[in-house]
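User: I'll paste a sequence; please echo it back and then give the predicted structure.

Assistant: Echoing your sequence first, then the prediction.
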Amino acid sequence: MNRLDIGCGVQKKPDYYGIDKNIYSDADLILDFTKEPLPNEDNSVDHIHCADVIEHMTYKEMIFLFNEIYRVLRPYAEATINTVYGMDGWTRHPNHLRPIFENQFNYFTVEALKSPTFNNMSIRRYKSSIYGIKQSK
C-alpha cells in the first residue's frame, strides 16, 4: 500500500491502492478522505495520484486531505494532483465548487517549506488541467 490512488472512482490506476468515498467505485477501501485520516503510517507512501477530485471539495476538506498527503508521503516522494484548470471547464460539472488556479496552492507550499520533511516543495503547471506537487531533492 505504498502507492495510493485517492478518489480513484471506477478507473483505479493499476498497481495502486484505491481509496474513494463512493461505494460503487473500484476502490480497495471506502473512506471519506475529506474527514477521515488515510490508513497509512507517517512517511510510508512513495506516490499519491489524485485525479479530478479537489475541484469537488471545500477548502476545509482540501486542507484536511493535503495535510494527510503530507503526513503519509515519504521524504522526496511525489503527489500528482490533476484538476480542471481555472475557468476552463469547471462549470461543466454541477458538483464542481470553484475554479482552481496555481496560486491557490501557495497556502500549502508555504507550510511545506517550513517542514523538515518537505524542504524544497515546488508546484508546476504541466498542462492546462494538470498540476503536480513534487518535492525536489
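Strands lie at 3-6, 17-20, 29-30, 45-51, 73-82, 121-127, 130-135. Residues 118-137 have pLDDT under 50 and may be disordered.
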